[in-house]
């Protein structure tokens, strides 16, 4: 078992990698009971459990990233009586199909789907192919405030992948960044709750911070699309053009300016990346959604005070310092 954290981070990491096989389930159950919710775990194939969990505790809600080999977890009526959680859980399936069995029947939850359930109603979850998922545990009183109902009487399955519920997708992205194993990012609890309200609460409109996060994520995932516009973003997150403009204006920006800045930042990273050193500058411009190399060059010079070719030249020097250029990378496009 490994635990990590410091004064500036509330992340706790647990892994079975260094745990003796005979103690893995016991310690895994103990960690979950302390950091998320209490569960009983069983392996499906007789092999030792392999699992990791990254946990972040916000003011009132808990976030987690969970990976594991094939197993089942159960929250029985007896466990609920002895250790009630008084909470609602959201499980974002990333990898591996899962089943959820409860008194209402069986739900099959596939990658790109969100399961919402009351964890004080008995259930059994199974992962025959292993799993990778994100989890959010919300106190029932908090959920009632944002969703307008006391609890989830029947488990709810929501599509959050591309083309699904935009705010659920934004929520998954925000949680995923908060529990990223290499570069965790801070997550404001009020924004998490606003996105949760918009995704599953049944309210007609989301809060300003939720819509701002949803819009930014919608944009960042489509930077290569030359037809990306404020109207498309507004339609994608379910707000009017005017409302979206007002949201960005409150941040001292505009939708077109944000799109331009994010495209330039993406191009800047590509031009500096040693693994992208052989990609012609015109192709970098195309991949980042610019209408033409000339348009890209003008915007880049205005933003960074240098031509794209100047930055590429610096990157070439850095690569040459570390090792000799392959012959096929001897010549690069210039603007």
- Widest sheet, order of strands: 1-3-4-11-6-9-12
In the CATH classification, which architecture of the largest domain applies?
Answer: Sandwich
Briefly note the structural class of the backbone: alpha+beta
Largest sheet: 7 strands, antiparallel
Terminal-residue CA separation: 53 Å
Average pLDDT across residues?
87
Query: How many structurally independent domains?
Result: 2
Going by CATH, what is the homologous superfamily of the largest domain? Jelly Rolls
The CATH class of the largest domain turns out to be Mainly Beta
Give the structure's gist in a few sentences.
This protein is α+β, with helices and mostly antiparallel strands and 335 residues long. The chain folds into two domains: 11-196, Jelly Rolls (Sandwich), CATH 2.60.120; 262-329, Homeodomain-like (Arc Repressor Mutant, subunit A, Orthogonal Bundle), CATH 1.10.10. The chain contains twelve helices and twelve strands.
């Amino acid at each position: 078992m490994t635990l990590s954290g410091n004064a500036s981070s509330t992340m706790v990491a647990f892994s079975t990698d260094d745990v003796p096989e005979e103690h893995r389930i016991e310690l895994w159950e103990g960690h979950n009971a302390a950091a998320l919710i209490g569960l009983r775990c069983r392996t499906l194939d007789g092999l030792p459990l392999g699992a990791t969990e990254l946990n972040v505790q916000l003011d009132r809600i808990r976030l987690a990233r969970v990976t594991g080999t094939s197993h089942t977890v159960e929250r029985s009526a007896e466990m609920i009586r002895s250790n009630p959680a008084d909470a609602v859980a959201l499980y974002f399936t990333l990898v591996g199909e899962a089943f959820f069995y409860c008194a209402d029947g069986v739900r099959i939850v596939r990658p790109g789907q969100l399961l919402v359930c009351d964890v004080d109603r008995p259930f059994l979850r199974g992962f025959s192919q292993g799993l990778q998922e994100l989890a959010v545990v919300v106190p029932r009183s908090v959920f009632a405030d944002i969703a307008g109902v006391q609890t989830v009487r029947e488990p709810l399955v929501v599509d959050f992948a591309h083309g699904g519920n935009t705010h659920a997708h934004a929520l998954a992205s925000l949680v995923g960044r908060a529990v990223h194993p290499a570069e965790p990012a801070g997550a404001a609890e009020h924004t998490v709750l606003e996105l949760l309200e918009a995704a599953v609460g049944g309210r007609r409109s989301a809060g300003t911070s939720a819509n701002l996060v949803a819009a930014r994520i919608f944009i960042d995932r489509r930077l290569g699309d030359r037809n990306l516009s404020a109207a498309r973003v507004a339609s994608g997150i379910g707000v009017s053009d005017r409302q979206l403009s007002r949201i960005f204006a409150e941040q001292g920006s505009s939708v077109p300016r944000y799109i331009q800045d994010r495209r330039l930042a993406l191009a800047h990273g590509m031009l500096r990346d040693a693994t992208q050193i052989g990609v012609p500058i015109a192709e970098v411009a195309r991949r980042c959604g610019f209408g033409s190399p000339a348009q890209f060059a003008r915007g880049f010079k205005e933003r960074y005070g240098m031509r794209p070719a100047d930055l590429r030249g610096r990157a070439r020097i850095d690569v040459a310092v570390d090792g000799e250029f392959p012959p096929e990378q001897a010549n690069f496009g210039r603007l």
